[in-house]
Amino acid sequence: MTGSRKFFVGGNFKCNGNKSSLQTLIESIIKSTLPASEIVDIVVSPPSIYLEYVNQLVGQRVQVAAQNCYSETKGAYTGEISAEMIVDIGLKWVILGHSERRNLFKESNQLIAKKTQHALSQGLSVIFCIGELLEQRETNKTEQVLDEQLGFLLNGVVSDWSKVVIAYEPVWAIGTGKTASPQQAQDAHAFIRKWLSEKVSKEVANATRILYGGSVTATNSAELSKQLDVDGFLVGGASLVASDFVTIINTANPKSYL
């Protein structure tokens, strides 16, 4: 079976922006020259309070993702939003397992798996984030950590792998200005694809898009995008600067497979 993986560039705005700045940002992005929709998916992820507002601004070319959602439909979960609510306002994507959720907010692998299973059951597509801490990389535990985090997607958690995009985000490179070298990124992505081939299927491994996240910039994205198993980016700070984000989008480099 042959095919190609459409590139994917996500912009995670985190806890940044207001109505005025988001309007300016989105209008600048959508007015720019962008690759064709067959080449790259573009997804932006504003704070939850602005999801519906941004969705009204993006038009047809850009999609909108929530940054998080809970594992239950409704209830006494102050401050949370549900997958059903995300669907209700017309969105198709959610980011789950981001390192800031894992490390700042102490979300466990079990909770993230439960969230993922529920989001998929409601028809959402999931950007599933994994990655190691600096001390784990320095003690050569990167693959062990990735194996453990990915392992929670097995045993029926993922019902449809075509609705999962995996984002490899080395925690030591998020917001630090440090970026994994193109070879470090490729090595981790190759491990993830091998894991998918062995634990799920070769077909899923070939088709699943694996993104790199971790201080992606307009300067380093072109070299990173050339790597065989890098299928896109989950961009943090640079996604808040329209010109930088557009430059990153335009490095789209879809990969073919046999």
UniProtKB/TrEMBL annotation:
<keyword id="KW-0312">Gluconeogenesis</keyword>
<dbReference type="GO" id="GO:0005829">
    <property type="term" value="C:cytosol"/>
</dbReference>
<comment type="pathway">
    <text>Carbohydrate degradation; glycolysis; D-glyceraldehyde 3-phosphate from glycerone phosphate: step 1/1.</text>
</comment>
<comment type="similarity">
    <text>Belongs to the triosephosphate isomerase family.</text>
</comment>
<dbReference type="GO" id="GO:0006096">
    <property type="term" value="P:glycolytic process"/>
</dbReference>
<dbReference type="GO" id="GO:0006094">
    <property type="term" value="P:gluconeogenesis"/>
</dbReference>
<dbReference type="InterPro" id="IPR013785">
    <property type="entry name" value="Aldolase_TIM"/>
</dbReference>
<comment type="subunit">
    <text>Homodimer.</text>
</comment>
<dbReference type="GO" id="GO:0004807">
    <property type="term" value="F:triose-phosphate isomerase activity"/>
</dbReference>
<keyword id="KW-0324">Glycolysis</keyword>
<dbReference type="InterPro" id="IPR020861">
    <property type="entry name" value="Triosephosphate_isomerase_AS"/>
</dbReference>
<dbReference type="Pfam" id="PF00121">
    <property type="entry name" value="TIM"/>
</dbReference>
<keyword id="KW-0413">Isomerase</keyword>
<dbReference type="GO" id="GO:0046166">
    <property type="term" value="P:glyceraldehyde-3-phosphate biosynthetic process"/>
</dbReference>
<dbReference type="InterPro" id="IPR035990">
    <property type="entry name" value="TIM_sf"/>
</dbReference>
<protein>
    <recommendedName>
        <fullName>Triosephosphate isomerase</fullName>
        <ecNumber>5.3.1.1</ecNumber>
    </recommendedName>
</protein>
<dbReference type="InterPro" id="IPR022896">
    <property type="entry name" value="TrioseP_Isoase_bac/euk"/>
</dbReference>
<comment type="pathway">
    <text>Carbohydrate biosynthesis; gluconeogenesis.</text>
</comment>
<dbReference type="GO" id="GO:0019563">
    <property type="term" value="P:glycerol catabolic process"/>
</dbReference>
<dbReference type="InterPro" id="IPR000652">
    <property type="entry name" value="Triosephosphate_isomerase"/>
</dbReference>
